[in-house]
Write a structure and sequence with these properties.
Oligomer: single chain
Number of strands: 4
Strand order of the largest sheet: 3-2-1-4
Number of domains: 1
Largest sheet: 4 strands, parallel
Strand content: 15-25%
CATH topology: Spore Coat Polysaccharide Biosynthesis Protein SpsA, Chain A
Length: about 110
Amino acid sequence: MKVVLIAPTINEVEGLRYTLPRLDKNIIDEIIVADRNSTNGTVEYCQENGYRVYHQKSRGYGAAVMEVIALTDADVIVELCPDGSSIPEKVPDLLTKIREGYDLVVA
């Protein structure tokens, strides 16, 4: 089961620094940061830390998610808001429920 995590951003470098290092990289195949023209070092931080950056073409959080979904062949998409409001430590719980057969899991 291929798992891709999408983190849509606009000037979220502080949130990314707080959020992404807390993810269990052993259970996520790829982290894609969908960026919409950040100017605060967001893209540079991601590149320095090995996160794939996708430059979002359309405006909006939902557009970022949909654009990245179109790029991937993942079996599971995890969407994570990188502003600090999402809890990265809950991702394993989400994946457990997916493996139990649930089609959609929200935390």
